[in-house]
Amino acid sequence: MSDVAALAGVSHQTVSRVLNEHPSVRPETRERVQRAIAELGYRRNSAARALVTRRSGALGVVTTSSAHHGPTSTLLGLESAAREVGYYVSVAAIDRFDAGTLRGALEHFLDQGVEGIAIIAPQVDVADAVAEAAAPVPVVTVTSGPLVEPAAEHAPVVAVGVDQRDGARSATRHLAELGHREVVHLAGPQDWFDARERLAGWREACAAAGVAAPDPVEVDWSAESGYRQGLRMVEEGLPTAVFAANDQLALGLLRAFWERGLRVPQDVSVVGFDDEAGAAYFVPPLTTVRQDFPALGRSAIDALVRALADEDVPRTLLPATLVVRASSAAPR
After folding, report:
1. How many CB atoms neighbour CB 172 within 10 A?
2. φ, ψ for residue 62 (rounded to 5)?
3. How many angstroms separate the first and last alpha carbons of the chain?
4. In CA terms, which of 95, 103, 162, 165 is 20 to 30 Å from 48?
C-alpha cells in the first residue's frame, strides 16, 4: 500500500479509502490510485487484514464427494448466497463421513480462520459425525434430518433444510386425487435423510387418502436402478402410478416403460422428486417436486450470519413445491 501511495502521490490513508470504496475520495484521485494498483499488481493481503479486523470473510463448506444432484445444487446455492453477503467459500469434499475425517476437514478450515462452517449433511453418518466433531465456530447443517446437539462448550449447530416429507405427501396426494387406488414408491437409500423423509411422506399420504401402499422398493439414486425396476414392474404386474424418490429414478422408469411399448401416463403415471434441470424435457415432461436450492443456500448463509451475531436461530424447513406436468394423469 505504501508503494501504491508513493506512485499515485497520495497518502496511505487515501489508498485504504479507495480499496474500501469510501465515498469521500475524489474521482480523479480514485482513478490515479487505481492506475497505480494496476501498474504495481497490488493485491490486498487478506491474512494480514484478518489479523487486524479479526474477520477472515471466509466460510467453510463440507460436502460429499459424490455428484448427486441435491448436494451439488445445494453447494452451488451456498456459494452464490455467500458471495451476495461478502463472504467467500472454501470447500472440502470428502468421501467418508466419520468423526475423524470430518474433524480433519474442520481443522483445515479452522487453520484458515473461517468464521463459520456449513455442512451439507444428507446422510445419517454425517449427522453422527457432526455431533462428535463439534467446532468452536458456528456450524449450520443443511439437512432434512434431526437437529444435532453439540456439547455445551462448543459453538451452536443450527439446521436448515427442505421439507422433504411434505413434498412427498403432495406428490402422493396428487396421484390419489387423480383417482389412483395404489401408489408404488421407488425409494432412495435409507441411509439418506431425504429418502427416509420421502418414504414417510408417501406412507402418510397413502394412509390419509385410503390408497394402497405396497412395500416400497429401496434402490440407489441412479437412472439405471429406475430402469431395472421399471422392467421388473412390467414383468411382474404394472401399477397404475409410481412415485420415484428422485428424477433420475423416474427417468429410468420412463425408458423401461417406453422400451416395453407402454405409454406414460395413459398406462402408468410417474412422478419424481427434485425438478432437476431437464425434467421438463423428459418424454413426457415429468411431474415432480421442486426444491429451491438458491433459497436453501440463502437460508443457510443467513443462519450462519445470525449465529455469528449471537442470535438464536430456529430450525428452518423450506417448502417443496409440486410441479404438475404430462407424466401423471387419471388411471384408464
Report:
1. 28
2. -105, 130
3. 76
4. 103
pLDDT in tens, 231-275: 999 999 999 999 999 999 999 999 999 999 999 999 999 999 999
Cα 256 from Cα 85, distance rounded (Å): 46
pLDDT grade, residue 51 (50/70/90)? very low
- Whether the predicted pLDDT of 144 surpasses 70: yes
**Alpha helix (H) residue ranges in the chain:** 2-8, 12-19, 27-40, 46-53, 69-84, 99-111, 124-132, 164-178, 193-209, 223-236, 247-259, 293-308
Could you give the maximum distance between any two Cα atoms of the chain, in Å?
84
**Model pLDDT, residue 123:** 81
Nearest to 184 by CA among 220, 224, 144, 236: 236
Query: 274, 71 in Cβ contact below 8 A?
Result: no
Would you say 180 and 149 are in contact if contact means Cβ atoms under 8 Å apart? no
Closest CA to 270 of 325, 316, 310: 325
Peptide bond between residue 156 and the one before it cis (omega within 30 degrees of 0): no
- Residues in contact with 211: Cβ distance below 8 Å, sequence separation at least 6, in sequence order: 172, 175, 176, 180, 181, 182, 183, 205
b/e for 123-142, b at 16 or more Cβ within 10 A? bbebbbbbeebbbebbbbbb
C-alpha span between 57 and 53 (Å, rounded) = 10
Residue 152: CB atoms within 10 A of its CB come to 5
Top-confidence residue, 47 or 91: 91
Is pTM, for the whole model, over 0.90?
no
Cell 417406453: give the residue. Answer: 258
- Cβ within 8 Å of residue 125, ≥6 positions away: 97, 98, 191
3-state secondary structure 270-281: EECCECCCCHHH
- CA-CA-CA-CA dihedral for 255, 259, 265, 267, to nearest 10: -140
Q: For residue 193, how many other CB atoms are within 10 A of its CB?
A: 20
